[in-house]
Structures are given as C-alpha cells and as structure tokens.
C-alpha cells in the first residue's frame, strides 16, 4: 500500500497538516468569552486530530516498510517514491535548463525520522494545551511547522529539501517570538539568523552541485561520474570546501559546539511544546542532513574530516555536559537551560557515532537521534508542567515536589533515568551502540566521551535532588491553583499525562526491544557505510 | 529435571520480583497496608523456586559447568548483540544468598517499615532491586552484567533516598549513584575493549578467544587494562578504595535496605564480577586487584575503630570485609574469596538486621518517652541492651564472632582461607604487604566488632531510652535467628578447621586462567603447562570454532566443564591444579594459627578496653591524637574528594558556563553588535551619500526647472520673441 | 542701375521686421493686429516681386490675392476676438492677458 485515497502516502503525511491549518484558519476566533473558549477547544482538537491522523499514517508507512531495501544512493530501492516534474524551465540565460522535481521517498535513514516526527508532533499538541494567547495563530503556525519538518525528511530533491528546510524556519520564528518567554524576541531572532546563516552555505553548495549534476536530484549528485566535464564539484579541493560549508550549515542545526549558542536561548524562551519540537525533531534535521546529503555526496571529504568530526562530537559531549553542570552554580540556574545543554551533550553522541564510520556507530547515531527525540521531549514537557503552575523554572526555587506531585514524580523518574542512560530505557541502547562503534575507530575520544555518562548522572541527579527531594518551600505549601479552575488537584493532569505517557512507553519498550527501529535502518546503514567507504577510497585515488 | 527446565525456572526467578515491583508500584493506594505481605509472598515464592533450582544444580548438575542460553537481542550490520542467561554453581549459590536474604528482609521490613507513609513503595523497590540483582547473578555475558549492574545502581539510589525529605538521604543517594557511575565508566570501557576485539561479550566466547592467544590489540597491556577497567566497576559497586566513600553515606537508607543491599548482596556484586572475570586477569591485573582489596580492607578497618554511629561501624566493617574478598580473588584464592562472600552475606545481614532491631527498639522507646531529639543510632546512647533484647543480643554476638573469625563459625573458615591465600601468594611473589594488611585488618575487625557489641549490649544502660527498650516481634527476630544459625561453620564443612573438605570447595572450583603464560604468574598456570600449554590453547581454539560453526549459538557451552575436566585429568585426587594451590595448602596451618592468635588478641583488647576498662580508650585516643583524628575523620578522603574532584568538576562546569555565556555567546552577540553597527554605518552612508546623490540630481533638475519656468510668462509676445530668437539661432547654426 | 528683385526684397524684409517689432512691442492688441498686417503685406510684396523677377508668374499673383483675402478674414476674426477680450477685460493690453499660462 503506497497510496491512500489516490494520494501518495508520503504526500498525504506531509500535507495533511496543511489541511489542518486551513481548517484552523477557517474557524472563527469567537467574539465573547463562551465562543472564544469553544473555538479554542476546537483549535486544540483539530490540531490533535490532524497530528493523530499523521501518526496513524506514519504507522501505516511503518507497517508497509520493507526492511530489506537499502536506498541511500539507489533510487530504485527507495520506498513510497513519488516523482513529478515540478518546475521545468528551459533555455534560461546562464542556467540553461532548470529542472526541479517533486521527488520524495524514504529509506532506512529517514523512516525512523518520519515516525519520530509524527510521534513528537502528536504529543507536543498536548503540551500546547496551555496556550491561550492568539490560539488560532499558534495552532496554524504549529501545523505549518509540522508540515515543514515532515517535508525535510521525505525530500530526495535538494531544492525540495531546501524549500522545506526554510518553510519550517518561518513558523518557528513566530512561535518563539510571539508565544515565548521574557526574552523571546532576542531568542527568536538569534535562532532565525543562526539557521539562516547555515542555510546560506547550504544554498551555495546546492547551486554548485546543481551546475555539476544538472539536476537537483540528490541521487544524481551522489555519482560524480555523471558530473559535467570541468564542473567545480569535480575539483578535489573545492569538494572539501563544499563539504565543510555544508557541514557548518548542518552543524548549526545539530548543534555542534562552537555553533550551539542559539540553542539554550531558543529552548529557554520557547513555549513548552515548541521546545519539545525543537529538541525532538529540529535538532535531528542537522544530523539527518549530514547522513542524507553530506556523507554520500562527499564520501572522500568525510574520510578527510572524519577525525575532526569525531573530535567535535566528543567535545560537544563534554562541553554540553559541563555547561549543564555549570547551570547549577552559575547564571539564572534555570532547569530548562540545563536540559538544553544536556541536548548539546546528547547530540554530541550522534556526531561521534556518525564519525566512527561503522555500522554500530552509525546505527547507534540514528537510533540515538530517535531516542534523544523522545527522551528530551519528555524532559521539556516535565519542565513545562511545573513552569505552568509555578511560573518559574529556577533550580533553587523548588524542593520536595515528590510529595506534592507523586504521579508526576514517577513519570519524571522515568524520563530522568532515561536521560542518564539507564539500561531498560532506549537511550542506553543507542549510547552503548555508539560507544561500541566509536571505540573501534577512536579509542581515546570514546574514553573521553564516556566520562559524559558520569557527568550526565551528576547534573541530572543534582537537579532531581534540588527540585523533587528535600522539603517543599513555604511558598508552594498551598495548592497551585486555589480557585481550582485550571488545576483541580496538585498532581499532573490528564492532558499532560496524555503527552508524557506515550513517550514513556516508547522509551521503555525500545529499551527492552530495540529491534523495531534498529532493524528498520539496518540495511540502509550497512549500505551507507559500504557506499561511503568504497567511494571514499575511490575518490581519494582518482577523480 | 532437564537443564533447559532449570534455565526456564531461573528465568521465572528473575521475573518474579519484577512482577512484584509492577504489581505494587501501580497499586500503591490499594496496598497501603498489604504491600508488605504481597511483596513477601512474591519473594517467598521466588525463594522456594530458587531452593529447588539451586539444589538441583548443586547436586545433579554439579559438574555440568555453566548451563546457558544465548538469545539475539538485536543485530546491527553483520554483528549481533546477544543477551543470555547462565547458571553455574557460583550463580546457584548466589541465587540462594540473594533470595533468602531478600526474603528475610521483606519479612523484617513488614514490621520495621510499618507506618511509613510510603510503605508499599518500599516493597516495590525491594522487588526492583531483587530483580536487578538476580539479573547480575544469572548473567553469562558482560552486557547483561552491565545492564543489571546499572539497574541495581538505580534501585539502590531509590532505596537510599527512600526518605528523600532528609537532605542527608538525598545527598547520599546522589553520591552513591555518581560514585558508582565512575566505576561503571571503567567497566564500560573494559567492555568496549573486549567488544572491539572479539565482537562478542559472552564470557565463554571471550575467554575462548583469549585462550586461543587472541589478545586485545596484540598487547598484554591492553588485556591487563581490560581486566582492570572491568574491575573498576567492582571498585565502585563493592565500595573499594578509592571509590568506597559512598557506602557509609548510604546508611541513610532504611536499615533493612542496608542489610540487603549495602551489606549482603549488591556490594557483593563487585566481588562476583571480579570472580567472573578471574580467568582473564593477567598477573598485573591480579596484583592491582589484590592491592586494591588489601588497601581497602586495612583502611576501612582503621576507620571503623573510632566511629560512634552503630550503622557507620558496620558500614566500614562491610567495606573492610569486601576488601578481603577482593584481596582473596586478587591473590588467586578464588574459592575462599567467594566463600567469604557467602558467609559474610549471612553474618553481615544478621548484624545489620540486628542493628535494625536495636534502632527500631530505640525508636519505639523514644516514641513512648516523647523524646525526638536523641540519635537512636549512636552507640554512646545505648548499653545494657543484652538484658532487654536477649534474642537480638545472642544472634548479634554469634555474627560478631563469625566476622571476627572465631572457630566453629563460618567466618573462620573463609577468613582463614583468605589469609592462607595471601601468605601463599606472598611466598611465591614476594608481595608481603598483602598478608600484612590482611592480618592487620583481621585484628582490627575483632577489636572494633567487640567494641561495638560491648558498648551497645553490655554494661548498664547509658540512657533511659535504652533502658526501656523491648525485644521486637517475630518478624524481626525470626530472620535474625535464621541468619545467626547460618553463620555456624557446619553448614559449609564438617571439619571446622578445614573448609577444603566441605561441599563448598567441591562445587566452587577456581577457574583456570586463560591468559597466555607470558602475561601470567607462572604459579597460576596449570601445573602440566610444560607439555599441555599449546594443547590447551589449541583445544580452546577448536572449541571456539565448533561453538560457532557446528553448534547453534544457544547450545550449552562447556567452558567450565572443560576447565574442570582439565583439572581432574592433570592431578586426579590431589586437586591442586596450580603451584599456587599447592602453596596455599601448605600455608593453611600457619595462617590458621596466626589468625587465631590475632583474632583472639583483638577480642581480648576489645574486652580489656570496653568491658573491664583495664585501659581507658579516651586516654589512648588522646595519646595518639593525630592517628585518632585521621581515623575518626575517615582519613579526610571525603574532604579531599570534595576539594579536588567534585569542586574541580563543578568549577569546571562553572567556567564552561561562564565561557559559554560570555565568550562563545559573547562572540555571537559581538558579531550581532558589529553587524548592527555596520548596518547603522551603511544606513548613514545610504542616507547621506547614496540618497544624497539621488536627491542632488532631483534638486538640480528642480533648480533648472525653476529657472526655465521663468520663461513661461504666458505672454504671447514673449513666446513669439523666443521663437524668433531660437529660430534665428537655428538658422545661424544651420549655415 | 534699375530697380531689381533685391530692392523689393529689402523693402519687404524691412516691412516684415517692422511687423514683428510691432507685434512684440506693442501693448495694444489693435496695434499688434496692424503689425500682423504689415507682415502679411511684406509677404505679398515678396510674392509679387518673385512673380515679376523670379519666375513664379501667375501663381505669385494668385497667392498674393489669397493672402489679401485671408488677411481680410483674419482681421475680421481677430477684431472680433479683440472685441470679446475688451468686453471681458475692459482693455486690450496684451501684457495683462496672460491666461495662456494657466
């Protein structure tokens, strides 16, 4: 089954949110209190419904996904392919023919990301429940964002990829800039400029590759034998430069350490659901872009820069972990900021695994992308829960929440220990896979990186102690909401649980049985490694 | 019963406590009262199954080596990550230890934890812990080991912090987890070395490869490193120096937890792990292990002498005893080391539960007296409990005798063996510090244990509270009696002076080292090494091949069996497979005599100081003030760590945060500032220069237009005149 | 020396110049009209002169007669306009009649 109601499954899953957005825009906001409340509810449920349908579609895709097909650089082994000429202009001055295709399809690299995006989009809807201000705009933007994210993961045409990549920026900017915290404008602009800065590099490389390959088709770009005579992208030095430029573009999104400072600000200022999306999906786009574009197109450059990439990965792990630890003692002592830095650290594992260039590391990296998405989403939702109630996230402002909110504490414990990398949770499996892989290529980097597990336990448990253990401060002794209108009881409510519980189940299930996701990407990862290794050597000899 | 059935039952044994955890944790509201009973029933069933399994294994399949099953967890690329379950004699004995003590602690806690507001949750956590611990015991590969290793860490975390309202408890559990994590870091790296080289983590497969001469990166140093790094996990979990600091703090947890986790089972997991990796330890790694054990045994004993908190004394005593076990394995006295683990589990659990009994009684008494300020754990507040709590006293005394190494107790058998081992090792290798620390620690153990017993139970009550204590109910006393009984030597050997003749030594044999001869002490190598070495390597190599080729991955491995058979063949009834074992046999008598004298001396001094007050302890303390302070302050190790590593790391974190905010982010913001200023400059330029030019053009045009407008007078005559003038000009131009 | 074409042309040129001068300088509209008449007549003189000396023959005469007729018509119309201007402005000073500017 590759179609639903005559529409390709991938097209359906990508543009479904657009449909939802139109519906949201058509619903009137309401004039008086009652109708406002009614339409607010409608916005919420339309969004939840749309993303739920999307999740169902993702599961349909999963169940029809053939684990044996590899994809990567073989157009015919991609799945759910749709290929339509989209923009075709001929005889242009300078350019010649301009040929952009609506070319989409998935393989083992993107399929887990589709699942992740659908899952995170769905649960983040519940984290959006507390949005009251300009709800129509919020949910419309939210759905547009979801469309952009999904599009990035299905595009096989570089132009299309770039287009979705940019589409997603715009709603993100407004979602942070309008519904964010006190320094939202600063954070939103910083996020936007940083990412745009990266996009420029991507654009340049894209154009250079286009002149060489004659189309925006990513698969064609992976085969330098078909490049035009004398193209810039056949020159070894320029290829290295192009790889580096592209790497910076993606590294900003990951973020790899020197390019990471947009992340703490964006995370801290963004509303909960947007932090969830940001950490859950957006960061993965950077690493996904590397796997889909940088690695197969410039295999010899991967070989050339491999050591530096591994170093950056290791460095990000330690830097992020130490910075997270530092949040306990320095600055605003913000819980959310600490988690933001932990994201930097955890994405460092992905980089390390990708640099290792073996199946264990690479599969671990993709699995870690998935797991970091689910786990960090949980962490941000957990912070959101107390922020909504106490309107502060200060590490020093709490204590003893374990007694006030027992169920919440239980869920928190799962998320916290998953983030620490406890066996039985998915994060452990992917971290171990990465270590197993990375150790074969980089013994000392891996040893240094592994100290991250000690630091990780350090900052997470310290935060746990400060916020949940000890005695409840005087000011939180009473109920959160004395009127009982918003919060009927002190503990976590049903809507919040609806967001957290599915994630907790996924985290634990994949921790015990990682095969569903790992098997899915196995063939592709093998093929990618094989392909990059072989053509990397080929390229270093001739070309 | 077939071996497969045994494994299946083992699987059930592992899952039962998990079931208990799941049932209780999701029904806390419904089980506020019944949680204890439910937990105890689950654990009781587990225990029954365990007894069946262990008995079968130790009788029917005693020589069957490890019965194991390997399953594929998932595969990445062409490599498969495997998990597995293995049951050998070691595991069977450990199963009994863990499940019996866990059961007794469950029963004990139904009374001890009665009235706690999180009563059912306590039993849920106990279930979680038991599950994790059993996972370690039944692991046949490093990955399982590591997974459950971490899980026990978490259950320990949850249980130490059970009363998390107390800051001290919340600090202690964090400290325990992080300290353990440091050890686990080493464990992980060790595993990575093995996986990178062998692509498998199953014990037998790894050892077979080493035996075949395939060592990591072709270097003995890496093999040593792998051994030491994996042992680092044990350093953390078994609270060995230098990572021992968490265990005394862990006494913040409820006392039954201390008995179960921090005395008998979890901390012994480190020793168990060291026993598991024994075959792959090189000479250097063994020395490292031995010295770590020796230092720990001695250091902890010196600290225990001066502590006043009932549980702290026991905690340091645990650290010291764990050091013994590690020392034993390090010097190659594998069997006695493991035996000490078992015997120690009984008597230390008895001591801890005894202390729990005392503390509970003190609490009750304080409750009646409406006194809430006193420290019920301080031995200076006790005294005379012998009369009010006779059963607790007797059991406690038996356990104390056992830990001191008095004949006819289990402790004597195992400790004597360890000391003989260290002596033998010293004679063969010249490392005399090891027996010295062993004997020194033995003397101190006897002394401080009797100091504790006498201060708490003998003499007159030092406070009203202790005078009004009462003996506890059967749920508390019953386990004490059972554990005290198990501390008697006849359970291990009919000959109270020679453990070697008992069933234990028959079932638990020292596994033969697989390390190539050049990296191993020659006295640890098989005695027929001169003609058998090459054959052995070949045999192992073949086995490795046949294992992967002919048989399925989950077939029963005969690794240990091969070793055992090998041993039998080589020496028949002598049983001494190595020169070391021979030497240990010879060292047995001198060690026994020395240890008897030393234990007796320690006990004597204990009585002299605290019972008969022949000497005044305070005077002596004043006399050797610096030494006393050093001991009382635990060698300032906590303070040193705080000042160096902990503050160092935290400050590094602060520096990084500062760096991130001020330098990295500062650079970004500076860039933003520069761009803004540049934009401003360009704005100015644009406004005055670019715009200026445009405006100038417009202005000039306007100016000339204004000038020309003057011509437009509206007067026909003027127009005409102009026409004529221009006409004339054109005329002139034309000609 | 007999009277030739040049003499006629000089006279007509003088007449033309006087006519232009009159048109440009006079303020009275009647005077301007009279200047106009002078110009027309200078043209007539040229036509006749060219008819006699330059080979225009009868065409020159016919053209001159056309001009005279045209001048009569023109004067009639122009005087009517001047009369109208006078009725509007109460004077016929061309300097002040500058509505063309607007």
Brief summary:
The complex is a heterotrimer of chains A (543), B (735) and C (102). Chain B has 735 residues and is mainly alpha-helical.
Task: From the structure above, extract its key features.
heterotrimer, B: about 725 residues, mainly alpha, two-stranded antiparallel sheet, 28 helices, 2 strands, C: about 100 residues, 3 helices, about 75% helix
Number of strands of chain B: 2
Mean residue pLDDT of chain C: 86
- Briefly note the structural class of the backbone of chain C: mainly alpha
What's the helix count of chain C?
3
Report the span from N to C terminus of chain B. 135 Å
- The level of helicity of chain B is over 70%
- Are there runs of chain B of 5+ residues with pLDDT below 50, and where? 529-574
Residue windows where pLDDT falls under 50 for at least 5 positions of chain C: none
The gyration radius over C-alpha positions of chain B equals 37 Å
Structural summary, described in words:
The complex is a heterotrimer of chains A (543), B (735) and C (102). Chain A has 543 residues and is mainly alpha-helical. In chain A, 71% of the residues lie in helices and 5% in strands. Chain A is built from 19 helices and 4 strands. In chain A, the strands form 2 sheets. Chain A has a two-stranded antiparallel ribbon with strand order 1-2. In chain A, strands 3-4 form a two-stranded antiparallel sheet. In chain A, helix 4 packs antiparallel against helix 5. The two termini of chain A are 42 Å apart. In chain A, 60% of the residues are buried. With 735 residues, chain B is an all-alpha fold. Chain B has 28 helices and 2 strands. In chain B, strand 1 and strand 2 form a beta hairpin. The termini of chain B are far apart. With 102 residues, chain C is an all-alpha fold. In chain C, helix 1 runs antiparallel to helix 2 and helix 2 packs antiparallel against helix 3. Chains A and B meet through helix 6, helix 11, helix 13, helix 16 and helix 17 of A and strand 1, helix 5, helix 6 and helix 27 of B.
């Amino acid at each position: 089954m590759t179609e639903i109601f005559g529409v390709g499954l991938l097209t359906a899953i990508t543009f479904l949110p657009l449909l939802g957005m139109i519906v949201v825009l058509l619903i009137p906001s309401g004039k008086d209190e009652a109708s406002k409340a009614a339409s607010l509810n409608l916005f919420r449920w339309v969004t939840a419904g749309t993303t739920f349908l999307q999740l169902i579609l993702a599961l349909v895709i999963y169940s029809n996904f053939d684990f044996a097909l590899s994809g990567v650089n073989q157009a015919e082994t991609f799945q759910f392919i749709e290929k339509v000429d989209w923009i075709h202009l001929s005889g242009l001055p300078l350019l010649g023919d301009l040929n952009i295709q609506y070319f989409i399809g998935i393989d083992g690299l993107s399929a887990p990301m589709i699942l992740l995006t659908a899952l995170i989009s769905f649960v983040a809807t519940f984290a959006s429940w507390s949005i009251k201000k300009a709800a129509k705009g919020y949910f419309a933007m939210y759905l547009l964002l979801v469309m952009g994210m999904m599009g990035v993961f299905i595009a096989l045409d570089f132009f299309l990829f770039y287009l979705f990549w940019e589409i997603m920026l715009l709603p993100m900017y407004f979602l942070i800039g309008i519904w964010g915290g006190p320094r939202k404008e600063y954070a939103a602009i910083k996020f936007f400029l940083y990412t745009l800065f990266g996009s420029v590099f991507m654009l340049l490389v894209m154009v250079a590759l286009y002149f060489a390959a004659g189309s925006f088709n990513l698969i064609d770009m992976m085969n330098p034998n078909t490049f035009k005579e004398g193209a810039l992208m056949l020159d070894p030095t320029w290829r290295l430069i192009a790889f580096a430029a592209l790497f910076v573009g993606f590294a900003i999104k990951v973020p790899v350490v020197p390019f990471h400072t947009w992340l703490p600000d964006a995370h801290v200022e963004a509303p909960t659901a947007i932090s969830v999306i940001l950490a859950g999906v957006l960061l993965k786009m950077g690493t996904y872009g590397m796997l889909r574009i940088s690695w197969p197109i410039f295999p010899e450059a991967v070989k050339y820069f491999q050591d530096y990439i591994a170093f950056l990965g290791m460095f990000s792990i330690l830097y992020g972990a130490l910075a997270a630890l530092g949040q306990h003692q320095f600055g605003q002592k913000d819980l959310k900021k600490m988690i933001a830095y932990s994201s930097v650290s955890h994405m460092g594992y992905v980089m390390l695994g990708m640099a290792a260039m073996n199946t264990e590391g690479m599969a671990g990296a993709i699995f870690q992308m998935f797991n970091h998405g689910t786990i960090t989403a949980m962490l941000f939702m957990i912070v959101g829960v107390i922020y909504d109630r106490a309107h502060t996230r200060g590490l020093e402002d709490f204590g003893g929440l374990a007694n006030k909110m027992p169920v919440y504490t239980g869920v928190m414990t799962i998320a916290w220990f998953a983030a620490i990398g406890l066996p039985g949770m998915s994060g452990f499996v992917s971290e171990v896979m990465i270590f197993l892989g990375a150790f074969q290529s980089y013994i000392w980097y891996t040893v240094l990186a592994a100290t991250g597990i000690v630091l990780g336990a350090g900052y997470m448990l310290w935060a746990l102690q400060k916020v949940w253990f000890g005695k409840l401060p005087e000011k939180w002794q009473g109920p959160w909401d004395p009127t009982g209108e918003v919060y009927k009881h002190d503990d976590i409510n049903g809507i919040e649980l609806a967001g957290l519980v599915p994630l907790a189940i996924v985290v634990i299930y994949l921790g015990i049985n990682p095969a569903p996701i790992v098997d899915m990407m196995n063939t592709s990862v093998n093929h990618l490694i094989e392909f990059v290794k072989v053509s990397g050597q080929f390229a270093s000899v001739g070309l | 019963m077939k071996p497969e059935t045994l494994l299946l039952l083992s699987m059930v044994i592992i899952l039962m406590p998990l079931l208990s955890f799941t049932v209780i944790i999701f029904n806390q509201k419904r089980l506020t009262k019944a949680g204890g009973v439910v937990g105890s029933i689950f654990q009781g069933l587990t225990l029954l199954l365990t007894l069946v399994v262990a008995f079968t294994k130790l009788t029917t399949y005693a020589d069957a080596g490890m019965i194991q099953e390997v399953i594929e967890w998932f595969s990445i690329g062409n490599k498969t990550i495997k998990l597995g379950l293995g049951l050998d004699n070691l595991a069977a004995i450990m199963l009994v230890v863990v499940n019996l003590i866990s059961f007794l602690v469950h029963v004990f806690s139904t009374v001890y934890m009665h009235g706690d507001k999180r009563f059912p949750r306590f039993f849920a956590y106990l279930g979680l812990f038991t599950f994790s611990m059993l996972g370690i015991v039944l692991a046949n590969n490093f990955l399982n080991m590591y997974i459950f290793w971490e899980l026990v860490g978490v259950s320990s975390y949850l249980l130490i912090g059970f009363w998390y309202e107390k800051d001290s408890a919340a600090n202690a559990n964090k400290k325990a987890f992080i300290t353990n994590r440091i050890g686990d870091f080493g464990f992980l790296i060790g595993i990575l070395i093995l996986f990178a080289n062998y692509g498998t983590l199953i014990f037998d497969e790894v050892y077979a490869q080493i035996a075949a001469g395939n060592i990591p990166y072709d270097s003995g140093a890496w093999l040593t490193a792998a051994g030491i790094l994996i042992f680092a996990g044990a350093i953390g979990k078994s609270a060995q120096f230098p990572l021992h600091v968490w265990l005394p703090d862990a006494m913040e947890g409820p006392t039954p937890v201390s008995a179960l986790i921090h005395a008998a089972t979890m901390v012994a997991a480190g020793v168990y792990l060291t026993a598991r990796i024994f075959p792959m330890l090189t000479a250097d790694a063994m020395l490292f292990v031995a010295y770590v054990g020796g230092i720990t045994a001695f250091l902890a004993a010196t600290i225990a002498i001066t502590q006043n908190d009932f549980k702290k004394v026991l905690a340091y005593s645990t650290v010291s005893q764990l050091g013994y076990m590690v020392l034993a394995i390090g010097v190659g006295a594998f069997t006695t080391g493991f035996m000490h683990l078992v015997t120690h589990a009984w008597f230390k659990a008895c001591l801890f539960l005894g202390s729990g009994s005392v503390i509970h009684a003190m609490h009750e008494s304080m409750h009646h007296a409406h006194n809430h300020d006193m420290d019920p754990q301080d031995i200076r507040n006790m005294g005379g409990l012998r009369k009010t709590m006779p059963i607790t006293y007797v059991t406690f005394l038996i356990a104390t005798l056992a830990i001191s190494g008095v004949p006819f107790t289990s402790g004597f058998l195992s400790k004597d063996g360890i000391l003989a081992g260290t002596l033998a090792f010293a004679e063969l290798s010249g490392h005399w510090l090891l027996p010295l620390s062993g004997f020194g620690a033995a003397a101190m153990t006897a002394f401080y244990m009797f100091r504790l017993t006498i201060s708490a139970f003998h003499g007159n009550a030092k406070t009203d509270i202790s005078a009004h204590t009462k003996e506890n109910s059967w749920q508390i006393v019953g386990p004490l009696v059972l554990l005290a009984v198990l501390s008697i030597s006849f359970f291990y050997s009919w000959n109270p002076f020679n453990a070697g003749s008992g069933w234990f030594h028959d079932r638990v044999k020292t596994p033969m080292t697989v390390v190539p001869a050049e990296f191993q002490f020659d006295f640890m190598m098989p005695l027929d090494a001169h003609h058998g070495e090459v054959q052995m390597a070949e045999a192992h190599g073949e086995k490795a091949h046949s294992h992967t080729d002919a048989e399925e991955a989950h077939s029963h491995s005969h690794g240990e069996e091969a070793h055992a058979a090998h041993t039998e063949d080589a020496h028949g009834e002598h049983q001494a497979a190595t020169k070391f074992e021979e030497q240990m046999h010879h060292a047995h008598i001198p060690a026994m005599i020395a240890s008897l004298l030393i234990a007796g001396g320690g006990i004597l001094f204990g009585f002299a100081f605290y019972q008969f007050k022949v000497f005044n302890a305070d005077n002596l303390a004043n006399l050797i003030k610096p030494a006393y302070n050093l001991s009382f302050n635990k060698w300032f190790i906590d303070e040193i760590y705080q000042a160096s590593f902990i503050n160092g790391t935290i400050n590094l974190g602060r520096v990084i945060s500062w760096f991130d905010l001020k330098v990295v982010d500062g650079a970004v913001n500076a860039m933003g500032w520069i761009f803004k200023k540049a934009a401003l400059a360009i704005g100015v330029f644009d406004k005055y220069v670019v715009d200026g030019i445009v405006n100038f053009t417009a202005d000039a045009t306007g100016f000339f237009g204004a000038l020309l407008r003057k011509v437009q007078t509206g007067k026909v005559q003027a127009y005409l005149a102009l026409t004529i003038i221009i006409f004339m000009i054109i005329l002139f131009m034309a000609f | 020396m007999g009277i030739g074409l040049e003499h006629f042309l000089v006279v007509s040129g003088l007449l033309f110049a006087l006519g232009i001068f009159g048109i440009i300088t006079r303020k009275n509209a009647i005077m301007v009209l009279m200047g106009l008449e002078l110009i027309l007549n200078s043209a007539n003189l040229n036509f006749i002169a060219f008819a006699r000396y330059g080979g225009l023959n009868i065409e020159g005469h016919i053209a001159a007669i056309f001009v005279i007729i045209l001048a009569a018509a023109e004067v009639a119309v122009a005087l009517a306009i001047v009369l109208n201007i006078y009725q509007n402005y109460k004077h016929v000073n061309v300097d002040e009649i500058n509505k063309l500017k607007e």
